[in-house]
Amino acid sequence: MAWPVLVFDIESIPDIAGLRALRGSAPGTSDEQVFAAWCEERKEKGQSDFMPLHLQRILVISCVFRNADGIRIHSFVDRDNASEGKVIQTFFNTLEKHVPQLVSWNGGGFDLPVLHYRGLRHGVVADKYWDLGDDDREFKWNNYISRYHMRHLDLMDLLAMYQPKNNAPLDAMAKLCGFPGKLGMDGSQVYPAFLDGKLEEIRRYCETDVMNTYLLYCRFQKMRGGLTEAEYEQEIELVKATLGNLAPAEAHWQEYLAAWV
Predict the structure, then answer these.
(1) Enclosing domain of residue 87
(2) How far apart are CA 34 and CA 19, in angstroms?
(3) In the chain, where do the E strands start and end?
């Protein structure tokens, strides 16, 4: 298994300001009213109230970064409700600096398209990410954009043989492989948690999700021969040791380790 590897996950909320602008909502209409009216219209049409990807405002991007120096867990967070562009730019700057293998669970179906739309909105620059071989010939044959390349590995998509009907949930696969799975909340609870001011809880939830993805990635590497059995066990012990060092200051890692069977 070659380093560096960057596993990522995003948490997003409805872009009410964007929705307001697109709907031409009357001045004085509250955010709650704008969102409720949109949901009601969708319901009347028999449509889902899941916000379209271009109206998913990114709140948190959590990463597990693995290189020769070890494992780091970090989140880029829009803490002032006005820094979405900066959060996205910082994420792409990390790719520019390290040029890692990018790993996700359903990143091709959700996370990356959201990053594309929101990055476009905020004028984000991501040269290396969008390189298809014009600047670096190696990227012609292995880039972040092409579905069947490994520079971005959407682990869910690959395991499903690129057939959406075969997709499996992250939580289920993590638990089936003996990992803790989701803790604290699920995606449907993120927006209510945001409205309640629980930004740190959302950040912690995102971090446990990205750790589940990293552990499944390690399991996949063992399956494909990228890690020997001994190397895999060493990596699992490194993860546990890393989380153990973080646990005194971060209660979600205490809970995560306690749930690890």
Answers:
(1) 63-259
(2) 8
(3) 5-14, 56-67, 70-77, 101-104, 152-154
* φ, ψ of residue 226 in degrees (nearest 5): -75, -20
Sheet holding 5-14, edge to edge: 70-77, 56-67, 5-14, 101-104, 152-154
**Residue 214 and residue 133: Cα distance in Å, rounded?**
28
The pTM for the full model equals 0.96
Q: Is residue 40 part of a domain?
A: no
The answer to whether position 19 is within a domain reads: no
3-state secondary structure string, 146-162? CCCCCCEEEHHHHHCCC
- 223 burial (CB, 10 Å; 0-12 / 13-18 / 19+) is exposed
Which residues of the chain have a pLDDT value below 50? none
- Specify the number of domains making up the chain: 1
> Which residue has 């909340």 as its token pair?
185
Tokens of 81: 């409700």
- Asked whether residue 26 is domain-assigned, the answer is no
DSSP structure class, residue 242:
H
Angle formed by the axes of helices 112-122 and 84-98, nearest 10°: 110
In a domain, 34, yes or no: no
**Cis peptide, bond prior to residue 169, ω within 30 of zero:** no
Structure tokens at 214: 């990293």
Cβ-Cβ contacts under 8 Å for 159 (sequence gap 6 or more): 166, 168, 220
In the block, residue with structure tokens 């596993």: 7
Query: What confidence score (pLDDT) does residue 49 get?
Result: 87
